[in-house]
Fold this sequence. Notes:
The chain is of the alpha+beta class and 138 residues long. It is 26% helix and 52% strand. The chain has a six-stranded mixed sheet with strand order 2-1-6-5-4-3.
Amino acid sequence: MGHIHAQEAIDELVVRFFSVFDNRNGAKPRLADLTACFAEKASVARHSDAGAELSTVVEFAGPRIDLLCQGTLIDFHEWEVSSTTQIFDGIATRTSRYSKAGLLNGKAYRGSGTKCFHFVNLGAGWGITSLVWVDDSA
């Protein structure tokens, strides 16, 4: 698989990843749609003022999917604003700037930050092996 095909596959995977975090127009995010983006044994880490939070994909996704489905956070979506991807013979890394917006408890909610993805070509397609992110300071 050449770099062009790899780039297209990674672009599509990142679009699928961000699309899970979208509950506009009555959409119901599904855990299975998110876990399908990741390789087995993938890890997720977030850095904030409280420190580092390390988790499995399910530990990361479960509370967020619940929040998007219970009505507290509505008309929400998250999207990639810009990115840089480097591909090296079956592995890749991508730095993404993202934004997010919705209504949290009836009030406008907006934010942005940086996500860093690592990917591996699993043979049947690309998967995220690790994700780290930080939200911008308010």
